[in-house]
Amino acid sequence: MIPAGTNIYLDADATRIKGFLESNDRESERLRHNAFRLIVEAMNDQESREITSAEDLRCLPLTLWILRRIGEPILTSRVLNHARDLLEGFLMSRTIASEFVPDYARRYGVTMEYDEMTGLYMVRAGEFVNLTSRLSGYKYRLIYQSMRHGTVYCDREVAAKIVREAFVRKLSSIFNGLSDEESYSITAPVSDNIDEIIDIFQKSGIKKSIDLGEVDATLFPPCIKEYITQMRDGVNLPHMARFTLVSFLHKIGMNNEGIIGLFKTAPDFNERMTTYQVNHVTGEISSTEYSPPKCTVLRSNHLCYWGEDPICHRDWLKHPLQYYTYKKRKKSGELPLNKAKKS
Ligand code: SF4
Known about the structure:
Distance between the termini: 62 Å
Bound molecules: iron/sulfur cluster
CATH topology of the largest domain: Transcription Elongation Factor S-II, Chain A
Oligomer: single chain
Radius of gyration: 23 Å
């Protein structure tokens, strides 16, 4: 059983949502108010956000329809991440007793049990690895967990992170299933409010273009282009993709300020943390200047996007930096087209 008033249903059925938008009852008014408030909060800096209770997240299905109509991926990601963080805060709070956390996990498709004897949460190893793949920090790596017979035993902090990841994935999948066209007719009663939100968003400067300075982005390998595109679209990159991007840009001559500026478009951007990580990877505050991982490593981590790219499929191509150097030499005429090395 879940305590009253804390259910977060994710039913985005079009008729149901239309009902909320056309009705004047108090509950519908409240949902509408919260849906817009959630979007505005997500646009603000983290520090200036008001606290929204988990109960307010019941407006999320309506929020998703509004976001579908607005059609700004970076704004959608910000709102989803804001909702995700609110849910995590709620799961970590005293409002919810330890044994109720797995109810939320199950609601978002994760099999989780609470072990009263140890006070730990049990999750299948496969689900653990899948849901923690985008989390940074040793605490979320399988190797640091207690494991027995394919089950991971984790503490509440890790369990809350797993639930929040499942929650945000569920939100994304619902969002991706909403029709663009239908979003216009459904949200018609709140068109004026949506126009106001679009105006605030455009003035906010959130949608910055990515400035790569002197670096020639046309020579980037597909993996690096994909990470940049994802970041521009408001996707939180997995740890290894961030590491690859930072070390790659550093090695091809981009300064740390430029690299940090690039990450400003990320929905979970934190200037202090990003500066520390960039300075660490580039050797500014550590004794090592890291290089990007090899193609085989990126491929085994599902971070290679070679598609049909002819250079990526050459036998000699082992590293994203090799791709860049090869293309640069070819562009400068150092490697005549017909003499370029072939596999
Ligand atoms: S083959 Fe290498 S360079 Fe090409 S996309 Fe994959 S990881 Fe990147």
